[in-house]
Amino acid sequence: MASLLEQQNADPGVDDITQPGVSPPVIAPGYDFGQVTDKIGNVVLTKRTPWSWVIGFLIAFGIMNILMLAVGYLFIKGTGIWGINIPVGWGFAIINFVWWIGIGHAGTLISAILLLFKQSWRTSINRFAEAMTLFAVMCAGMFPLIHTGRPWLAAYWLLPYPNTMSLWPQFRSPLIWDVFAVSTYLTVSLLFWYTGLIPDVASLRDKAKNGFAKFFYGILSMGWRGSARHWHRYEYAYILLAGLSTPLVLSVHTVVSWDFAVSVIPGWHTTIFPPYFVAGAIYSGFAMVLTLAIPIREAYNMKDFITDRHLNNMAKVMLATGLIVGYGYMTEAFFGWFSANKYESFMILNRMTGPYAPTYWALIFCNIITPQFLWFKKVRSNVPILFIISLIVNVGMWLERFVIVITSLHRDFLPSSWGLYHPTVWDWATYVGTLGLFTTLLFLFIRVLPMISIFEVRALLPQSKVTVE
Amino acid sequence: MKPTGIYGVMAEFNTPDELVTAAHKAYAEGYRKMDAYSPFPIEALDEAIGIPKTILPWLVFFGGLFGGMAGYGLEYWTQVIHFPLIIGGKPLHSWPNFIPVWFETTVLGASLTAVIGMLGLNGLPLPYHPVFNIDRFLDHAQKDKFFLVIESKDPKFKLDSSKQFLSNLQAQGVWEVPN
Amino acid sequence: MAQFFPPSANAYARTSLVLLIVIGGALGLTGYELASSPWVTREGVRPEQPVPFSHQHHVSGLGIDCRYCHTTVENSSFANIPPTKTCMNCHSQIWTNAPLLEPVRASFRDNKSLVWTRVHDLPDFVYFSHEIHVNKGIGCKSCHGPIDEMPLTYQANSLQMEWCLDCHRNTGKNLRPREEVFNMTYKQPDRSHAVAFNGVQFFDQEKLGAEIQKVYHVKGTQELISCNTCHR
Amino acid sequence: MATDGNMNMNELVTVKPAKAAPAEVESAAPVAPVLELEAVREQLAGAKGVQYWRSLEELSNKEGFDQMLEREFPRQASEWLDPVSRRGFLKLMSASLALAGLSACTKQPEEAIVPYVQQPEDLIPGKPLFFATARPTPFGAQPLLVKSQMYRPVKIEGNPDHAMSKGACDTYTQGSLLDLYDPDRMQAISKVGGTRTWGEFVGEMRDAAAAEKAKQGSGMRFLTETNISPTFADQMQGVLKLYPQAKWYQYDPVNRDNARAGSRMAFGQYVEAQYQLAAADVIVSLDADFLYPHFPGFLKLASDFATRRKPEENNPEMNRLYVVESQMSTTGSKADNRLPMRASDVEQFASALAAAVGAGGGGTVSNEAAKKFLDVVANDLKANRGKCVVIPGENQSPAVHALAASMNSALGAVGKTVVYTDTVETNSTEQGAGLKELVADMNAGKVSLLITLGGNPVFNAPADLSFEAAYTKVPLRAHVSTHMDETSRLSHWNVPSTHYLESWSDARAYDGTISIVQPLIEPLYNGHNPHEVLTIFSDSPGITPFETVQNYWKAQRKLSGAEFEAWWKRTLHDGFIANTAFAPKTVSAKSAAASTAQNNPAMEIVFRPDPTIFDGRFINNGWLQEIPKPVTKLTWDNAAIMSPVTAGKLGYEDQSVATITLGGRKVDAPIKMVPGHPDNSITVYLGYGRTHTGRVGSDTGFNAYKLRTLANSGYAVGATLERVAGKKWALAVTQHHHLVEQGKPKAGQSTTGDAAASRQIIRAATLEEFRKNPEFAVEGANEPVSKDITLYPNWTEDPTKTGAHQWGMAIDMNSCIGCNACVIACVAENNIAVVGKDQVLAGREMHWIRIDTYFESKGPADVANPRAYFQPVPCMQCENAPCEPVCPVGATVHSPEGLNDMVYNRCVGTRYCSNNCPYKVRRFNFLLYSDWDTQSYYPMRNPDVTVRSRGVMEKCTYCVQRINSAKIDAEKRLGKPDANGQPHDGKVHEEDHVQTACQQTCPTGAIVFGNVWDPNSRVSQIKKQSRNYALLAELNTRPRTTYIATVRNPNAELEETKQTETHG
Description:
The structure holds 4 protein chains of 4 kinds.
Chain A: H1 4-7, H2 15-18, H3 33-45, H4 51-77, H5 92-103, H6 105-116, H7 123-146, H8 151-157, H9 174-207, H10 211-221, H11 228-261, H12 273-299, H13 308-338, H14 342-353, H15 357-369, H16 377-380, H17 383-410, H18 425-448, H19 454-460
Helix pairs in contact in A: 3-19, 4-18, 5-7, 5-12, 5-17, 6-7, 6-11, 6-12, 7-9, 7-18, 9-10, 9-11, 11-12, 12-13, 12-17, 13-14, 14-15, 15-17
Chain C: H1 8-35, H2 38-41, H3 55-61, H4 66-69, H5 84-91, H6 102-110, E1 116-117, H7 130-135, H8 140-144, H9 161-169, E2 195-197, E3 200-202, H10 205-215, H11 221-224
Antiparallel strand pairs in C: 2-3
Helix pairs in contact in C: 5-6
Chain D: E1 19-20, H1 23-28, H2 37-56, H3 62-72, H4 86-100, E2 112-113, E3 129-135, E4 142-149, E5 152-158, H5 171-181, E6 190-191, E7 194-195, H6 198-214, E8 220-224, H7 230-242, E9 247-250, H8 257-267, E10 272-275, E11 282-286, H9 298-307, E12 320-325, H10 330-334, E13 337-340, H11 343-356, H12 368-383, E14 388-392, H13 398-410, E15 418-421, H14 431-443, E16 449-453, H15 457-460, H16 467-471, E17 476-481, E18 493-496, E19 505-508, E20 514-517, H17 530-535, H18 545-557, H19 561-574, E21 603-609, H20 622-626, E22 634-635, E23 640-642, H21 644-650, E24 656-662, E25 665-673, E26 681-686, E27 715-728, E28 732-733, H22 752-758, E29 764-766, H23 767-772, E30 807-812, H24 821-829, H25 837-841, E31 850-856, H26 860-863, E32 867-873, H27 883-886, E33 892-894, E34 900-902, H28 912-915, E35 923-924, E36 946-947, E37 953-954, H29 960-972, H30 997-1001, E38 1007-1011, H31 1018-1023, E39 1028-1029, E40 1041-1044, E41 1046-1048, H32 1052-1063
Parallel strand pairs in D: 1-36, 8-9, 8-16, 11-12, 11-14, 12-13, 16-17, 17-18, 21-26, 23-25, 29-41, 30-40
Antiparallel strand pairs in D: 3-4, 4-5, 6-7, 6-18, 10-15, 19-20, 21-27, 22-28, 24-25, 24-27, 30-38, 31-32, 33-34, 35-37, 39-40
Helix pairs in contact in D: 2-3, 5-24, 7-18, 8-13, 11-12, 11-13
C-alpha cells in the first residue's frame, strides 16, 4: 500500500467511470520536473508582489478589521449587541460556526478520502483546499468562544486542566465534544498540511536566493533532503494520517450536528442530522474550493495544473452531495409528517410558511434546484456558470444553518415564549469580518507557501514513471 | 569505520529510471550504507537500496491506544470519581456521552504520533547535512535531478573505487561529499 | 560551502524543540502555582489594622472565649465583629491610657466605627455559614488555624474552592464533639490520646468522625459537594 | 421591635451590601466598603439638584427651562440603554481586567469590615428582622411584614395575621420597595432659588400662616391625597380649628367619586361595600375588575373568590362568575361567562338587570346576545338569593353603583355576601367637586397659600379644570412630594416627602382595621412626612411624627405610661390594632330609578388606572414598569387598547399611532389590539406621558389625563381617531397572542392559545365535564414515557433522590388571577434586574416567573370573546432536566434534593441550556443588566442572592436561599424536642413554612411549594388531585412543578348559544 502517492498517476480517477476514454490528463502536457517546480515556486519566490495581490490583500485586511472592531465592541458590551434573545439563544455566531466548519471539511476530505480512493486529480487542489480548511476552521473555532457570555472564562473553563476550583468540564455536553472535535480537527489538519508541505518547502529553500527566505523555508523544511529512506516513512505517515483524518473529518461535523441533535428542540432532535450535516459540509466545502480555485487559477495562470477536469470533477462531487442534502431536507419534511408529533409537524410547517419561510425557500432554491444544472456537462465545463453556482451553494448552505438554528428555536414548545430573531449590524459585521479574516489568511498563504503541491505534481508527470525492475 | 573527512560519494542522474538502475547495481555490488535522493517518492528505491519496513504503523497504533485511554480515563475520573455531579437524571458514568471525546483523543494521539514519529525516525529536524555541500545537489535535488550517495560508513566504501563505480553507472556527475 | 545552515544548526534545532516543550509545561505549572499562591489567596498575610489586636494575647493569654466577641457565630452565618463597646467593656478599666488603644477610645468617644481590614474574605458568590459548621462540630481551628497563637491575625488557609471541597469530600476528618468546637487546645484523637464522645473513648479520628457524622446527621459527600450548598 | 428612627447607617457592619457574581467585575465597580449614604446624598444632590434648581429660576422662560431639563435630567434615561456611555467604559475596564487574569488567579480586592460602636441588642448580623407596618393607599392600608437586613428593608410581605392580607401582598406594594431606594427621589428642600433648610421652610410657612391667621385662614388651602390616617385627620381638624376659614381638599385621580355618589343615591350617605365572596355562589361583575390590585379591598376579594374555585373529586362545587365588562381584564379572564360590553352601555344593562331581578331600574337592552346574557344572569341571581352578589365597576356611573346596591338589597345579599360599613377615608368627599371648588377659588384669587401634601395635581387633575393655570395664580405654593414632578416644578417650595417605610403614621385597611405605619429606616433623602409638615400650622409645632401618632393614640385609647407602652408595643408587633375593623352598618338601599342613559354609537374611551404604575405615581419604578401588564403583556408604555375588529375597521395595526381627539383635546397614542375587548371602544391607562419625572419614567407612554374631564372621569363617548401616517410606536410586549406577530390577525385566525390548547399546555374542562370525568386533565394526554426506556438498562438508582427533602411545587391555574404579584415578589427577592424597554423589545426581559396568558377560541364566535387562561411559569425543576447535560462547564446541575441549581459564578454563558429548555424559563444577562453603579440600590438587594453580572444565565431556583436557611434552622434543632416532645429529626417540616417568594405573596394561594416526599405536606396533597398535570410531560423531563387544571363553571344556557353560533 505504501506508494499510493506514486501510484496516482497510474490511475486516471473518476472520469473513467462516467466518460470512458475521453478523460483529459490531470496536468496539461509538456511540463518537466524543473518547469513544474519553477512555475509553482516562482509565485512565492518572486520579488515583485503583483499589484492585484496587494490590492486584494488590503481589501481583505480591511474587512478583517471590521471583525476586530465587532469583536472588540462585543467584549466591551456583551453578546447583547447581537440580535439573539430568549427564545433564540443562538444566532449568527452558531450559524457561522457551522457554516465555516462545513467549509473546512473539503480540504481534509480532498487530501484524505480522495487519497485513499486513489483520485489523482486531487493533487493540484489539495494544498490550498487544506489551507482553506485550516483558515475556515480558525474562523469557525472563534465563534463558539466569542458567542459565550463570558469568553474570558470560557476560553479555559472548557478545557480540562487542574485548577484551584477542583472543577472539570462537563463531558456530557456536545459543546465539550465540539471543543475536542474542533481542536483535534484543527491540529490534525495542521499536521497533515504541514507534512505535505515539508518536501515543497525544501524545494523553496533550495530555490530561494534571499537569505531570509532560505532561513525561513530552511526552518520549516526541517532539513528535508529527499532521501529514499525518509520518503519511505513519509509515505507511511501520510497514508496513516489520511486514514485517521477520514473518520475524523466525518466525526467533526457529526459532533457539530449533535449540538443540535442531542437537544430536545423540534427540528433539532433528529437522527438524520449526522449524515446530512456531513454531506452538507462536503457540499459547501467543494463549493468553496470552486469559488476559490476559479479566480486563483485565473490570476496565477495555473490552468495547466488546475484544469477543467478538476472543475468538472468537483462539480460532480457537489452534485452528489447536493442530492444527499436534498434528500436530508425531504427526510426532515417526511419526519414532520410521519412522526405524527405535533411539535415536529408544526416545526416543518412553520419553516415552510412561518415568518422565516423566505429563507427556507431560498435555501431550497440554492441547495436543491441550483445543483441540478450540474447534471449537464455543458454547465460543468462552463467556468463562469460553475463559479456562480458555487457562490449560490455557499449562500444556500449558510441559509440552511440559518433555517436550522433560527426557525427551530423561535417557535418551540410553549407558544407563550415564541419570539423572533432579527440580526443586528454587529451580527453582520462579525460575519463579514470572518470572511475578511479568511481571505486575508488565504492571501498570505498564497504569497508565502506553494499553493499546489509541487512534489506530487512532479510525481504525476509521465516522466516520473519507473519502468525498470 | 574509516576516519575520513568524507561523508561519501554522490552521483547525479537525470531520470528516476537511471537512479533505480544505479541503485540496484550498487546494491548488487554489495553497498549497503547508501541513500538515494529524489524530488518525489519512488517506491522502487525501497527495494533497490534495501530499506526495511518502518515500525511507524505500530507507533501510531500505540499512540492512538494511549490517546483513547487517556481521554476516556479523564472523563471517567472527572465525572465519576473526582467531582460526581448529578446531570439531567443520568448516571454518573453516562458512557454514550463519553464516546465522542474518547474518539477524538484517540485520533489525536495517533495523528501526533504519526507526524512526530515520522520526523523522529527520519532524524529531523536536521538543517545541516553533508549532502547539501554539493552545489548540484542544492540546486537540483529538490527539483529535477536524482542522486545516489554511497556513504563512507559502508564497509565496502573506498573513495576511489566507489567513485569510479558510480561514474561507471552513467552518472551525470560524481562528487566527493565532504562531512 | 554553499550550504546555508552551519553544522551547529542541528543542535540548535533540536534543543529549541525540547525547550519549547519544557517552557510550555513550565508556564502551565507556574500558572497553577500562582493561582494557588499566597499572593492570590492572601494566605498568611497580616494586613495592617487600626489596632494591632492580638488573638494570642486575648485567647491564650487571657482565656477569653471566642463567643465573647464573636457573639453570633452559633446563630448566624456571620460570626459578628465585636462593636467598640465590647472592647471598652474591659479597656475602660485596664490599659486605659495605652497609646495603642487610642483608636478604640476615639471610636467610642466619637461614635465612629473602627474600620478593620477583612482577613477572611470569601468571594461574594460564596455563601458560607458559621452557624451550621459550628453546630455540626467543625472547630474554629479547622478553618482559622492556630488563631490562639496569632499575635496578628492572618488567614491560615487558602480558602479556595479546592480547600473547601477537601473537607466536604472527606467529611469525617475534621469533625469533633460539639462541646470542643471552641476549644483551642483540642487535639484530634490518636493512638496515645483519646477523645470521648457520647461516653465512648475514640483513639482514631476516622472512627470518631464517622460516629459524629452519624449522630449529628452531617450530610454525605454528594450533598455537601452539591453546588447550592455554597452558591446560589 | 420598633426602630426608633435614630439609627445611623454609617454604623452598620458591612456584610457586603450586595452579593456580587463574578469577582472580576467587582474589581471594576468596587463595592464601597462602607455604605456612605451621606456621600451618596451629597453626590446626588450636588450632581443634579443644583442645576435643576438653578433652572427653576427661569420659570418665566418656559422653553429654555424645558430644554434645560431635557438636557440635564430626563435625557439621562437614555443612558439606561445608551450603547456607549460611562457605564460602557466601566464595562470595558472590567472586561479587560477580567481578560488579564485567569479564573482562580483573579485576586480579590481588599475589603473593609466596619463593626458598630454599640451594637443594637436585637441585631444578629446575617439574620433578617421582620417589622410589621402598612402601606397607605387611597383604598386603604396594605398591612405588611417587612424583612429587614441590617435595618435595611429588603423585601415586603403581607402581614399573615391581618385579615385583609393573610400574608399576601399585591403588585404595587411589592414594587413600592424600589421607590424607597429610587436615586431620582427629591433630595433636598428647595425654594425657587435653590436649596434651603427645613428651618427656613418652617420659618416662611409660619410667617405665611401668621398672615393668614389674621383673616382666619381664608386664603389658606390644603390639598392632600385621599386620607386614610386617623391621626392626620385629627391633626388637620386641629389646624382647621385654628384657621376656621381655611379649607382642606383631597384629590386622587383614581378616586371613588362614582362609588361615593352612587352610595349617596342608594343610601343617602357614604358607605363602603365590603363584598364577602366566600359566601357567594353567583357573582356578577358590572365592569368591576375586582380581581386586580387597583380594586378596593382586592386582596380579600381575590382570596375569598379563590376559595370557592377549588372543586375536588369528592366535592365538585364552585362558584360562578358572570362578567360584563368594557375591557379584557383579569376578572373577565376568570369569568365563567363573560360579555364584552362598552362601558357606556353598562348602565342600561344594569338598569335592565335590576328590573329583571325586581330591584327597580327598568328598560331593556337591545343587543340580542346581551339580552340573552341578561336573562340568564337574572335567572341565576334569582335562583341564588342571598348567595349572590352584584359588584359595580369603579369606572361606572353613580347610577350603576346605586343599581347594584339596590339589586344586592333585593336579592337578599346584604349581610351575607355584602356588608356596608363606614368608609376607609377619614373624610369622604366627592373629590372632583372639591378640586373644582379649589380651582375656582384659585382663579378668583382667593387662595394666598396652598400646601399640597403629596399628589401631583398639575399632571393628573381633570383636563377641563386647567389646574396648572389656576395653580400658578397662587402667591405661595408649597409641595411635599417624593419626586420632582410636574407640580413641583411649578411650586415655590418643594419639600421631599418620606416613603412610607421611612415615616410614622397610621392607616386604615379596607375593612377598617387600623395599622400603625412604622418606619424601617431613617429617611434616605432628608424626607419629611405630611404629619410633620402639618405641625407647622398647628399649635404644637416641632413635635415629631412619632410623637404625633403616639399622642393621638394615647388620647384615643385613653392610656398612658407603661400601659400605653405595652399597648403600643403589641400594636407595632401585631401590625394592627385589634378589633378596629368596621362593624357592618344597617342601611337599606332605595330602589334605584331606571337608567336614563342613551346608547351613543360614537367611539367610546375608557380611562383606567394603569395595572403597573397605577395613576402615574410608580412611573419611575423600573420593577413595575417592566412587569407585563396582565392580558396585554405590555411593558413600559400605555396604549389605546381596542378590539381587533375595531382596529381592522379603522385600518390600524398594533403599534400604529393615532391622534385621539375628545372634546377638542388631543393626544397621540399607539394602538394595541386585545381580543375580547368590546368593539367601538378604546381603553387607555392613566399615568403615563409624564413630562417631569426620573430617569426611568421619562419618555414612556402618552398622557391620557389630557383627555379626561371631571364629568367623564370613568369613560367618555365621542372620541375620534385619526391616523398619524407613517408613524410606528414600538410597544414592548412580552408575549404575542397571534401567530402573525405584530400583524393584523385575520378573521378566525387561530391564536397562540389555540396552539397551547392543542398541545395540552392548558387543560381545562367545565364543571359538568369535571363531574363526569375527574381525570380529564391526565386522560388521553401526553404522558411521560416509562422510566424503563433508557440507555442504561442496569441503572436503577436515581441520583436525584438522595437528599433529605424533595422539593416540588403545584400551581393552581384555577386560582391564578394573573395579578403579577408573584412576578414582582420574585424580582424583589432575587435581585432581578430591570432591562429597559429596548431590551424587552429585543425579547430579553429577566423575570424568572412569568404569567403566560392564552386566549382560546374554539370557533369563530369565540374570537371576539375568547376564554383566557393564566399560567404562571417558573422553572419546572425537571428531574431529567434537558438544560443540565448540555452545559459544557457544569454550571447547571441537580441538587440531591431535586433542585435544578444554577451556579452563576461558573456560568460562561453559552445559552445552550436556554435553547434546550422546553419551557424557556431561563434568562440571560445579554448585557450588564444589574445596576452596579447606583449606590442607593445596594442596600435594597437581598444579600442572600448573588447579583448577576453580564454573560450569565439565571433562573428560578425555588428560592434556594430560603430553603437553605430553613434547612440550617431545622438542622440546628436536631435532637431537641419538637412540638410533640419528640426529638427533632433535623428536617424541614410543613410547619416550618418554607415558602417561595411567589407563593408567599400570592393573593389566591395558587402556588404551593413544599416537600413532595412528605405525604402530608400540602403540596403532596394537592399533587394527588386528579387535576394535577405536568407541562410537556411527554418530553420525559419529569418536572417538579406541576399544574392543577382549570375548571370553569359556565352557565350551560350561554354555552349553548356559543355552540350554535360556532356551528352556524
